Amino acid sequence: MIGSPGREQVSRVLQQHGALMVLAALVIVGSLAFDSFATEGNAASILVSSSFTAIIAIGMTFVIISGGIDLSVGSLFVFGGVLAAYGSQYGLFVALALPLAACGLVGLLQGLLIARTGMAPFIVTLAGLLGVRGLMLAISDEGATTYLVKDSAFAQLGQGGVLGLTWPVYITAILAVAAMILLQRTAFGQNVYAVGGNEQGAALMGVPVARTKVYVYLMSGLLAGLAGVLNAARLSSGVTILGIGLELDVIAAVVIGGTLLTGGAGGITGTIAGVLLLGVIQSLINQVGNLTSAFQQVVSGLFLALVVVAQRLLGRAQRLG
Amino acid sequence: MSQSAAPVLEARQISKRFPGVVALDGVSLALFPGEVHALVGENGAGKSTLIKVFTGVHRPDAGELIYNGSPAAFGTPLDAQRAGISTIYQEVNLVPMMSVARNLMLGREPRGRLGVIDTARMYGEAERILAGYGVVTDVRRPLRTLGMGVQQMVALARAVAIDARVVIMDEPTSSLEPREVETLFSVIRKLKDDGIAVVYVSHRLDELYAVCDRVTVLRDGKVAHTGPLAGLERLKLISLMLGRDLDEVKSGGLTRFSRDRRRAGKRDGAPPAVRAEGLTRRQVLHGVDVAVWSGEVVGLGGLLGAGRSETAKAIVGALRLDSGRVLVAGLPLRTGSTTAAVRAGAGLLPEDRKAEGIIPELSVRENIALAALPSLSRAGVVSDAKIDKVVEVFMRRLKIKAASPHQPVQELSGGNQQKVLLARWLAIRPKILLLDEPTRGIDVGAKAEVQALVDELAEEGLGVLLISSDLEELVEGADRILVMREGAVVGELSGDDVTEDKIMASIAERGAESDG
Question: What is the ipTM of this complex?
Answer without folding.
Answer: 0.75
